[in-house]
Amino acid sequence: MMKWARMAKDKRAEMGVGTLIIFIAMVLVAAVAASVLINVIDNLQDQATGVAEDTQDYFNTQLRIITVDAKDDGVGYESLWIGAQLATHSGPVDSHGVVLIINDRYFFFNEDLDDEIDVDPDQFRSTYEMVWHKPSGFEGQYIMKAHTVQIILEDDVIQEILDDNEGDKISIRIIPQNGLETKKDFRVPVIIN
Fold first, then answer.
1. Is the pTM of this model over 0.90?
2. How far apart are CA 176 and CA 99, in angstroms?
3. What CA–CA distances, in Å, run from 167 to 77, 150, 162, 187, 192?
4. Closest by alpha carbon to 131, among 153, 151, 106, 108?
5. Between 122 and 80, the higher pLDDT residue
6. Which of 23, 119, 130, 178 matches a 20 to 30 Å C-alpha distance to 4?
7. Among the CATH numbers 1.20.900, 3.30.300, 2.60.40, 3.90.320, which is that of 63-187?
């Protein structure tokens, strides 16, 4: 009888040790799962923060068109001058990243006069120059709140666009590198000779 009682105690002990091993294994699995979940949540939070910052930058960056002047030389149009400022809600805009689109023709900022831009009228790619009206003390390539810029287009492409659309509407779109597009349609006046 004694043998039977000791054997029953040994079986209970074995069951207890087995249960303990299973419990420890479950705790380890839960710990690994928890660390994986924490890592995934941390990565998702970082991504969400990045997306939120990019979205805020995108919606807080915009230029507005304040003037559009087409200059003529008595025979036809020779240049187009577009005055622009930051929109009321906008932060600084990198002037080197501003793309101008006029009737499906692309114009890129040209700081070094054709060094970086592949100018190709057949591919609808040209360049423009920008004249700054900055208060004293402002330097750099960023358009700030106090700045007004004149975007000047003086090449055969813009002359062709203006002359071909005389009396018709043309579309001007200004797109910062990271930001909202500004679109303005205007009618090209007829030159009376």
1. no
2. 6
3. 12, 24, 9, 6, 11
4. 151
5. 80
6. 23
7. 2.60.40
